[in-house]
């Protein structure tokens, strides 16, 4: 496929707001793509490089290069050039990299150059395009979009599914099913207002402790145990406790879903940061384990004995879980039969908070497991409302904070995957956080103007606030009152952060002050 085709379709997609038109454009694009173009076209559409971060920052693109007269570059040639770029090392690397970028841009037309610049600086990242690309692929192959989405969830990647679809047609979707050993995106929860309201919506449901730790998915296939995080990172080597627990259960061919937490000497749960620090550390795992032993708590089972259980109702999955995992390692829960028993759910929430946990998750007993979805059959209820927002930019600090990136520009997700700025904050940041965020944000920097450094919208931060307020300064006409940083959420991708809609639903908007 010519890069020109991709650049044109990408521009047309950006200039229309109609989802059906975007899908039609993508379907046309995939009809003209070969299976081997798919691993390049899909990330390029979303503004990513298949090679990951390779240091093609804006500094390399500052000098204009005369464009080529006509389109000749193919996407595979561009990909090969960037693989070569990524491999440059040693003395003179900087000059060689600049030469390679100039050579690539020189072979590109003006429109292609614009596309490449966006891609190379990371400025045109749009996570929402992966969802659209799945729909475009489905339309190109004449299969239901839901089938493609499910294959992607279970098979691990849109690229693998897209390639197989274009190579072998609709029958290829059957190749993608849940497999023990291959991570699957976990089901997520919707926010609920109160336990009572949640029971009203769900009817018969389990009310479970919401534990503030790290989500884990534990796979065992014979001797082989693997542990994955919510972002599907393999952390097996960092959590030996979980490997031995999984190895000791009398069952095989299973996938367990749960949370890993830790307790202090009095049996109170330790804060999230401590657990994140332990799970994040690769150094001297044995010493870390001694200092802060982890406790797994499981709440679901997605496969057992090699059988896929996703479509079973929760009550049946839980029965299987209870047959496999002893009670102390299962989440504490109570079951209510319907709205008449809502007071039991409230009481369970109150006791859970007393025990030091953050809230409850209520789960419909008849619901299947919706991998990778924020299912409506899981409702989380917690007393302190916070938002997970994305850092869009940061300002260099003054006084004690000179030389540190301090005031953060915060964004909420729009339905099209872009971000709307909601306000700024430098409150709640400790010295260690300032130090860390300066380093991290400079890695994500895409430009600097005055004292503001703009960054790729990837870093997620949890924000507490006291309500919403009208403001003409921000694009959605609202801002957060007294926003303060609670913590970074490196375990959460930007595509899963709170939307403008969720923010507006948190309460009334006060008049501008
Ligand atoms: N009993 C439980 N059932 C399901 N998830 C639980 C449970 N206890 C704790 N959790 C955690 O809560 C998360 C569910 O909330 P959600 O899916 O919205 O993620 P989140 O945005 O990280 O939530 P929050 O920011 O409220 O912690 C799960 O990802 C999981 O890590």
From TrEMBL:
EC number from the UniProt entry: 6.5.1.1
Record organism: Streptomyces agglomeratus
Residues the record lists as binding ATP: 208, 215, 230, 259, 299, 374, 380
CDD domains reported in the protein's UniProt record: Adenylation_DNA_ligase_Arch_LigB (cd07901)
Taxonomy, superkingdom: Bacteria
Protein name per its UniProtKB record: Probable DNA ligase
Similarity comment text for this entry: Belongs to the ATP-dependent DNA ligase family.
Function: DNA ligase that seals nicks in double-stranded DNA during DNA replication, DNA recombination and DNA repair.
Reactions this protein catalyses: ATP + (deoxyribonucleotide)n-3'-hydroxyl + 5'-phospho-(deoxyribonucleotide)m = (deoxyribonucleotide)n+m + AMP + diphosphate
